[in-house]
Design brief:
five-stranded mixed sheet; Helix Hairpins; alpha+beta; Beta-Lactamase; Heat Shock Protein 90
């Protein structure tokens, strides 16, 4: 692409060169010539010219005239180049003051060109006097000082200063300024042509040889003292500084004209033109240095950008390495609005390989897809409030949640970004399970100590009570029915107390398992049969939802059946008579067995639900709160998990078990 662009520019430059070469021919065709045409000098004319040139006075005048021609031509060339460089500088720096001041110098060069044409008589006005050149030279310097003052005044006026600042890149300012300067140039040329008969302005026998030159001198002093310092302060650059410095040779030029020049093309007259050439050359040099400085700044900026790019690339590679090596799912999400209600959605900008593995996604590029389309709907609904809160508040969000879709515990971390969020999903199931097991173990240890103390303190007196009751039964008369009824009450209460102590010990003691491979559906069906009498009494409907494939599990059949039976019995007691419904679902997900027992009862009070599996915590009338503690003890012994979810529409108990359990895992 770059090579084609350079070639295209070279082609345009080629045609410009051709046009310049044809330009003199076109000018001749138009009737303008650069010298005489079809004219031959005869011998008499040549001899006359030689005689004139050999005259010392005339020769000195010609020498001065030629030197004047060289100085003015140089000044005009510099003025044209300054205008060209001014626009080049504008294309780089976008400083609008540079091309405007360059055009001002260019227009001043145009007036110098008119001065040169009049002095060489290329343009010869009617009635033009010999000393008309002095007048055009004076006018050129007045115009030079005046147009610089006007150019800088445009930027120093209060009402335009704000406009310049607001539209610093607007080319219309340059266009309007150019039109204004050209109009002033044309008007000045018209004024000059009206004074072609001006006499000699020099007064050689006075202290000030040319009093009229006080006018440009005062104008240059005004520029140097008031205008240029303010302009340079508002628009500091090498170019504005060089204009300031160019006033030195401009002032010296005036001094030579005022105190030294007494005749056209004399020494002081031409030195004045040389100083004016320097006055034009200094801004041209400033523009050159300005361009060099801009080029150096561009190189320096490019080096900084390249360095920053490399650092960012290294940082990007480092972050990419961290993301790729992280075991956690990491997403970079961009916030978008999905509909007119400004409901936010999130587009995937980047994700790491662990995201594919942990969320069971197909191996493909998901960049640009909606985050809600690649993860389960229920998980997205739980994540959406966190994502919204992170983007709206600008604060990190941290939460643990359980995903039924993956049967895993996740730690969710949302970090707000500029227009989105960085989402990290960590699998904390093992940590959660270990923490839960530790908590259960601590509770069981405390409960066990209490249970053993209670059992010791209760069973000893209870044994004495039972022995005393047996002796009492043998000692009373058979006819004493009231006495026997009282003895039976004592025996039943004693048995109740003994059962309570046994259940307490069972709930607080780690279960020792007798493992065998069993059919889980058969085990659940047996537990349902054991509870069928109670279900029929309340007319409760029990439904089974099993997977098509038989599920086998390594477990202690008796204890696992006891746990499931306990949950079924609790569900039967929780539902209403005649309308009660219990659903038992059994499936295998992600290498684990999932058993869900749900009912349509009135739900569990949140205060009780929080401590549901703790001993002596119950909301059931007549309950002692040990059944669910025993159930959790059994499930934990199988290296499984159990949790409860409840609402006003019912309760769900969810059990997660390993399919294969090694015996060594159960040994404590």
């Amino acid at each position: 692409m770059d090579s084609k662009r350079k070639l295209f520019q070279a082609d345009k430059f080629f045609w410009i060169i051709i046009l310049i070469c044809l330009l003199p021919l076109l000018i001749n065709i138009a009737g303008f010539y650069f010298g005489f045409v079809d004219y031959r000098l005869d011998s008499f004319t040549i001899k006359w010219i030689l005689q004139i040139e050999q005259n010392e006075d005339i020769r000195q005048i010609f020498i001065g005239k030629y030197i004047h021609l060289i100085f003015v031509s140089t000044t005009i060339t510099i003025a044209c180049l300054t205008a060209l460089l001014g626009f080049i500088d504008y294309s780089i720096t976008r400083s609008v003051s540079t091309p405007v001041m360059s055009i001002a110098l260019f227009c001043s060069g145009l007036l110098l060109a008119a001065h040169l044409l009049f002095s060489t008589h290329v343009i010869n006005l009617p009635g033009q006097q010999y000393y008309f050149t002095s007048y055009t030279w004076l006018t050129s310097r007045v115009f030079h000082a005046g147009i610089i003052s006007i150019g800088m005044g445009i930027f120093l006026l209060k009402f335009s200063g704000q406009i310049i600042q607001e539209k610093i890149r607007d080319h219309r300012i340059i266009s309007y300024s150019t039109i204004l300067f050209l109009i002033l140039t044309i008007m000045s040329l018209l004024i000059i042509t009206e004074r072609s008969s001006t006499a000699n302005l020099a007064h050689p026998f006075r202290n000030i040889a040319r009093r009229e030159d006080l006018i440009p001198l005062c104008m240059y002093i005004f520029l140097t003292v008031l205008i240029i310092p303010k302009f340079h302060k508002r628009f500091p650059s090498i170019f504005s500084k060089s204009i300031y410095l160019s006033m030195i040779p401009a002032l010296v030029s005036q001094l030579y004209m005022m105190f030294g020049s007494t005749e056209l093309y004399d020494n002081s007259f031409n030195i004045s033109h040389l100083m004016m050439a320097f006055s034009f050359f200094i801004p041209f040099t400033g523009l050159c240095f300005n361009y060099v400085e801009s080029h150096r700044n561009e190189i320096f900026t490019n080096e900084l950008l390249l360095k920053e790019f490399r650092e960012r690339k290294e940082t990007e590679l480092t972050l990419q390495g961290v993301m790729n090596s992280s075991p956690d799912a990491i997403f970079a999400l961009e916030k978008i609005h999905m509909d007119q209600n400004l409901s936010p959605g999130f587009l995937i900008k980047a994700m790491n390989p662990a995201s594919l593995r942990n969320l069971k996604l197909n191996y493909k590029n998901y960049s640009g897809e909606l985050f809600s389309n690649i993860i389960p709907h229920k998980l997205y609904e739980e994540l959406l409030p966190l994502l919204k809160q992170a983007t709206e508040s600008g604060e990190h969000q941290l939460r643990e949640l359980y995903s039924e879709d993956f049967s895993l515990w996740f730690m969710i971390v949302c970090v707000p970004l500029e227009n989105g969020v960085a989402l990290t999903i960590s699998d904390i199931s093992d940590r959660k399970k270990a923490s839960q097991e530790l908590l259960i173990a601590e509770k069981m240890a405390v409960t066990g100590r209490i249970a053993r103390m209670i059992a010791h303190e209760i069973r000893n007196p209870l044994t004495n009570i039972n022995l005393s009751v047996n002796q009492l039964r043998d000692s009373i008369q058979i006819e004493d029915n009231d006495g026997r009824k009282l003895i039976e009450i004592i025996e039943r209460a004693s048995s109740r107390i003994n059962l309570l102590v046994s259940e307490l010990l069972l709930s607080s003691k780690p279960s020792e398992l007798q493992l065998s491979e069993i059919n889980l559906e058969d085990l659940i069906n047996e537990a349902i049969n054991l509870a069928s009498d109670r279900a029929r009494l309340k007319n409760v409907n029990i439904e089974q939802e099993y997977s098509e494939k038989e599920i086998h599990i390594t477990a202690d059949k008796e204890k696992l059946q006891t746990a499931i039976l306990n949950l079924i019995m609790n569900a039967i007691e929780a539902v209403e008579e005649n309308t009660g419904k219990i659903i038992i679902n059994c499936s295998e997900q992600n290498g684990k067995i999932k058993i869900v027992i749900s009912d349509n009862g009135s739900g569990i009070d949140p205060g009780i639900l929080k401590h549901l599996f703790e001993p002596f915590n119950t909301g059931k009338r007549g309950g002692i709160g040990l059944g669910l503690a025993a159930v959790q003890n059994i499930i934990t012994a199988h290296k499984g998990e159990i949790k409860a979810e409840s609402s006003k529409n019912g309760t769900r108990f969810i059990i997660l078990l390993e399919t294969h359990l090694q015996k060594k895992e159960t040994e404590a």
